[in-house]
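Annual report, structural modelling task.

Input specification for the iron/sulfur cluster complex:
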Amino acid sequence: MALIDKILKLKRDKRAVILAHNYQRPEIQDVADYVGDSIELSRKAMNEKEAEMIVFSAVDFMAESAAILNPEKKVLLPTLGARCPMAQMLTVDEIKRCKLQYPLAPVVLYVNTLASAKAYADVCCTSANAVEVIESLDADTVLFGPDRNLAEYAERKAGKKVIPIPEWGFCPTHLLFQPEDVQILKMQHPEAVVMVHPECSSEMRNVADFVGSTSQMCRYAKESTAETFIVGTEEGLLHRLIRDNPEKKFILAYEDAVCPNMKLNTLEKLYVALKEEKHLVTVPEPIANKARKALEKMFEITN
Ligand code: SF4
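The model returned the following structure:
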């Protein structure tokens, strides 16, 4: 039996659902029940009443969020070492230190944080709803972590003081994009529309026609009359963009924009994860209870 058939059979037998982030390898996206960004997949995880098991093909913090929101289900991460380096950049000690310094500022944490950090958040957000979440808060100043670029973007959009915690947090993959590369591509494709992720630098955002999360980019590409797009996010998204818009052309703004952590997951590991029910993701209950409140508050704000 082909590997894909074995995966599909195991999935049925074990009443499992496979969630794959937009940055996963194409073959994983193709076998998944749902492909999306953090918020799309978090909602799917919550709404999967029938499933007994969630295999989350992504990195650690996403599987942790699924486990927090679905305490009664088994949540599996195909690769134990698939960790987001940006999520590791914000420690609980740093949050405590900043809260002492700004006691009145609510703590808004990007979902790209570990569960231990989320337990200290007033509310979570994704790159798709960071501005909406910050705008909704009854405060002129907020603490925001761990991505400095998303903090800066949200500050401009929301018109509030957004203090990045730590001051230097970043996504190593999105930092690879440079406006000079976009300028060269624009010379070759003058008709192209430039869309970038808010985790990119402000210099990249300044040369973009559209700034948005991966789900927002998918929607924008579909609705736009443009036929060519220069894309500033991890290369995995191109698979979904091309599949959904076969008549349009998508060019990566930097050809080696690959998140090595996301790419640790393979079809083989997905198969083993389903077969041996590993690696089980668990979050200690006291931490999960606090982190769940911050995630649920985000869902209340953004419906
Ligand atoms: S693309 Fe960046 S933020 Fe996303 S998992 Fe990779 S390192 Fe983390």
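The chain is about 45% helix and 15% strand.
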